[in-house]
Amino acid sequence: MRPTRSGDPGEGAASAAWELLLPAASAPARTRGRSLQAALREAVRSGRLAPGTRLPSSRDLAADLGVSRGLVTEAYEQLTAEGYLRSGLGSGTWVGAAVRAAEPRAHDLAPRSPGARADFVPGTPDLALFPRAAWAAAHRGVLADLPHQELGYPDPRGLPRLRTALAELLARRRGVVADPERIVVVSGVAQATTLLGFALHARGVRAVGVEDPGSPQHDALYASAGVTAVPLPVDDEGVALEPLRASGVRAVVTTPAHQFPTGIAYSARRRAELLDWARSVDGIVLEDDYDGDFRYDRAPVGALQGLDPDHVVYTGSVSKSLAPGLRLGWMLVPESWAEEVVERKRTMDLGHPSLDQALFARFLERGDYDRQLRRCQRAYRDRRDALVAALDAHFPGAKVSGIAAGLHVIATLPQRYGPEERFLARVAAAGVAVRPLSAYAHTPAGPEEAEGVRLVLGYAHVPTARIAEGVRLMAGAATG
Ligand SMILES: Cc1ncc(COP(=O)(O)O)c(C=O)c1O
């Protein structure tokens, strides 16, 4: 039944709200209130509860969800204060008339900060390292060689030549079990996520677990497919198992090689537990291998997918290795999901542009991609070392973690630099762009955590010579 608009709450609104909020209601007691608020906020933001919809009374909703009435009242009050809901004396609670999508949490896709004197916002590689000459040569080669018929509509999975080259690459570099028949070429992890979201929705799945802290991208993309993100805490081994089990979700998004943003690598034990969980609930794990290509001084951590290709959807892209503007990525889907995902890809855009695919296939086949990865790897390791050294010099006592891989680190500054709000204001005034870890958290920090300062510092796009200067500026501002 649809929610009622501008009328009595009735059964429609109650059952719609009930369905949307059900996963949050089964969150662990400690986080249930916040989960409920997050799910309700997301339902309003995404338009699934449209402006003007009247919500059930707190008593009815609490009874439907099997939670205490106080939790529902608190959620209504909080969202009313935030402007998502409005309430009138004795007239119930409504979705606000002019709800605008809320400001996203700090976003990887945020444009770089143009006026900043130093910019450590994570998310982009060094675009100046884009291999223009090799790319142009591959482009010329493809235009000269491509048979006419390959300019027709492509196979929605992608050109066979590219899927074969990708299968070789992913098996070799990431330990993926890579059957070209189960690869789908997509326009990035973002599209892979959306396709999976639609496929989950078609199977009746309405909730997906996401890492907390995690990438804000995931929540928004699943919401666009009608699937609600349920935040699950990350501990030092990966996504925490008990909350995952208790949440009742049957799909979970993970970043096992280098958790975004904390930078930890999932432990071998947690990987095994996660796959056991997936098998036991007939569920699925989405592995977002967004920066798995970059590792510096630790043994390679192979993809989770290699351990159980039937329960993992693996996805990656060239957004960190070449440039996000190329919009080019891949997903590897278990056999039981392949048909559904490919059909979604077909109906979405009739397949990825063939010229781009042929070009990338040639780039891979000729070893240009491996060369690019090696070149970036060297540059990024130097930058990482420069950042760690600068933090050590200018922020004595700072703890730097997540440094073994990827394009960002986490810096935990000693208490004296806090509280976070003051630190961020001072640093921003000095023209240094940074993101706190809290910007990626679904669950607000407790008072103790809020006292400290934890930063997610992206370094890949900052030339080595400018890293020390940026950190010095930041330290000067923080203590000044
Ligand atoms: C966690 C995470 N996954 C995926 C991506 C990349 O998405 P796409 O491949 O669509 O560019 C990003 C981009 O910054 C990210 O931070």
TrEMBL record:
Position of the signal peptide: none
Pfam family, one: Aminotran_1_2
Superkingdom of source: Bacteria
Gene3D superfamilies, per the entry: Type I PLP-dependent aspartate aminotransferase-like (Major domain) (3.40.640.10), Winged helix-like DNA-binding domain superfamily/Winged helix DNA-binding domain (1.10.10.10)
SMART domains documented for this protein: HTH_GNTR
Domain HTH gntR-type positions: 30-98
The keyword Transferase is annotated on this UniProt entry: yes
Family: In the C-terminal section; belongs to the class-I pyridoxal-phosphate-dependent aminotransferase family.
Protein name: GntR family transcriptional regulator/MocR family aminotransferase
Organism for this UniProt entry: Streptomyces paradoxus
